[in-house]
Design the sequence.
């Protein structure tokens, strides 16, 4: 504590004032709030993991559908590329049965970021209501990123990041769809 | 040694259980610190209702963030900082205060009427300070905060704290002196 040498710590003797107490018992309200927050965070975690698994499934199916299918089988039997394609297809089909790995979530997160950039370019400015929602989602992503800076291997946090990015993508793409229908109706 | 009313020890076992989210232990902690928490919130906010809200919010924040408490300083100091930060945010957001009533104060000793009278003078004088001046003088003189800590709590510079403290003390002296002169004149 820094007090000037010639001045007492409490020159006006404020410490002599009696303590002020309250009979109000805030514990029930505090308890309810803590329990509510705990339930929400549990639901968020559970939802996060489920959505991340769903996202992995979608990604795996996309990879399978987009994988080039050989028209004819080479007379020398399947080549290395064909084997790789067949292998990746099998791998992709088996992915949804596994827990998402940090690597797969990071890859998804990158793909979704790229998709957000593309959508942002295509859609341009969002209407105010969606913009507010988008800013909220971005704030949540920043919070998740803070958590990831401390714990970069957390599957839970990467799942949350993927889910939030999926929400941002959906926001832009729904807006694009709405614009398309509006144009079509004109 | 600190003389803060907050200075109540908490054992490591209780703290560890609170960190794990044990609500029964959280209740014990609340009951242990609720009065000093309310007292400091009231001294800063000057309204029972607001101080009750501040105390409640501060405990919710503290229990949510208890894992962030590193344990390199006493728990009570950390908890007090949470309460003070909530109270300061509140006065900065809303500078409304309520008039303090006699029922809010109790003489510390039975039959201490003269002491109660002095306390009332000091209370009344404190009540006449601006919210920020009152918070600074209380945190410095009673809670033992230094200027750096006060500056951090307000998000200002140390010179803000020094200026406010000196102004608050001067104003309190003026008010107390004026009160005593009025009392002398009435006798």
Sequence:
């Amino acid at each position: 504590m820094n007090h000037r040498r010639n001045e007492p710590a409490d020159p006006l003797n404020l410490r002599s004032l009696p303590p002020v107490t309250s009979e109000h018992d805030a514990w029930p309200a505090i308890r309810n709030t803590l329990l509510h927050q705990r339930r929400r965070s549990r639901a968020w975690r559970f939802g996060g993991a489920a959505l991340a698994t769903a996202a992995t499934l979608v990604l795996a199916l996309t990879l399978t559908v987009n994988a080039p299918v050989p028209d004819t089988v080479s007379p020398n039997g399947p080549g290395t590329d064909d084997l790789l394609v067949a292998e990746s297809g099998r791998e992709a089909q088996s992915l949804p049965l596994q827990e998402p790995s940090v690597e797969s979530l990071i890859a998804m997160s990158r793909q979704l970021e790229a998709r957000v950039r593309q959508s942002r370019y295509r859609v341009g400015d969002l209407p105010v209501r969606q913009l507010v929602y988008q800013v909220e989602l971005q704030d949540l992503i920043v919070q998740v990123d803070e958590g990831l800076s401390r714990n970069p291997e957390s599957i839970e946090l990467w799942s949350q990041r993927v889910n939030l990015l999926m929400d941002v993508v959906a926001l832009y793409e729904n807006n694009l769809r709405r614009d398309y229908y509006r144009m079509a109706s004109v | 040694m600190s003389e803060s009313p907050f200075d109540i020890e908490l054992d490591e076992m209780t703290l560890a259980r609170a960190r794990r989210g044990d609500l029964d232990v959280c209740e014990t902690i609340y009951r242990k610190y609720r009065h000093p928490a309310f007292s400091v919130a009231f001294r800063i906010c000057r309204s029972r209702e607001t101080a009750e809200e501040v105390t409640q919010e501060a405990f919710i924040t503290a229990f949510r963030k208890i894992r962030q408490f590193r344990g390199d300083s006493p728990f009570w100091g950390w908890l007090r900082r949470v309460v003070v930060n909530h109270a300061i945010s509140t006065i900065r957001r809303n500078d409304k205060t309520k008039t303090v009533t006699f029922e809010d104060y109790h003489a510390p000793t039975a039959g201490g009427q003269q002491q109660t009278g002095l306390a009332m003078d000091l209370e009344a004088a404190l009540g006449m300070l601006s919210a920020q001046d009152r918070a600074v003088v209380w945190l410095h003189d009673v809670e033992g905060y230094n200027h750096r800590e006060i500056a951090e709590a307000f998000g200002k510079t140390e010179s803000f704290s020094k200026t406010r403290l000196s102004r608050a003390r001067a104003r309190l002296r003026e008010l107390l002196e004026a009160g005593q002169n009025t009392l002398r004149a009435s006798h």
